[in-house]
Design goal:
Number of strands: 6
Strand content: 5-15%
Largest sheet: 2 strands, antiparallel
Structural class: mainly alpha
Helix content: 40-55%
Strand order of the largest sheet: 1-2
């Protein structure tokens, strides 16, 4: 089975949206100011959600550009080393906005991605594009899988820790954790540096 099957990817994206929508709805005002790492370190839950919104939009923008046959252009992100500053700017730009707006934007982007990928063929999902922060061309399918994996895997524990809660258990884990995302991790492996060390291409942390 193609790990980047459009039906699977669309279902993954909608399941991540469903889980996060329920999680957001259960948060108290105080939750959003809690830090997501031990000893009150790291981003707050609000800042982490702002990051998820920004990265989700970047993935969707890159996928839409690739589908339109256009190069990907994300202001302020020209190479991997731009990520820390870009992440911070995106969080700061969202700081004046109500947290409900940020959550709605994040969930809406997941819905847009699911709607888009459901209309695509496996052949289109295999088309490659250049995304500034990756060390090699990335497929459209990988961009959509990354949009599910980034919140659903990369930041799931961090988000839950910030709220003193759980995001999902093993029985409710979205299929992106068992189908699309393992392939995403594998396909994003890129040899870099003179020693050819392989690294996973999940740079949008």
């Amino acid at each position: 089975m193609n790990a980047f099957d459009p039906d699977i990817l669309a279902a993954d994206l909608l399941e991540v949206k469903r889980i996060f929508a329920a999680f957001f709805a259960a948060r108290s005002p105080a939750d959003w100011q809690r830090h997501t790492e031990s000893h009150n370190r790291g981003w707050t839950l609000r800042e982490t959600t702002s990051h998820l919104d920004a990265v989700g939009q970047a993935y969707l923008q890159a996928a839409e550009a690739a589908l339109a046959g256009q190069p990907c252009h994300i202001p302020g992100m020209l190479q991997r080393t731009d990520l820390p500053a870009w992440n911070q700017r995106q969080i700061e730009e969202r700081a004046p906005r109500p947290i409900t707006d940020i959550c709605d934007s994040f969930l809406s982007t997941l819905q847009q991605a699911a709607d888009s990928v459901a209309r695509l063929s496996p052949a289109v999902l295999n088309q490659k594009t250049v995304f500034p922060v990756y060390h090699r061309p990335i497929s459209v399918g990988e961009l959509f899988a990354g949009q599910a994996a980034h919140p659903g895997l990369v930041h799931a524990a961090q988000v839950a820790r910030g709220a003193g809660s759980i995001l999902y258990g093993s029985s409710t884990r979205p299929r992106c954790c068992t189908v699309s995302s393992p392939a995403f991790f594998t396909l994003c492996r890129s040899p870099i540096g003179p020693n050819g060390v392989a690294v996973y291409g999940l740079p949008l942390h």
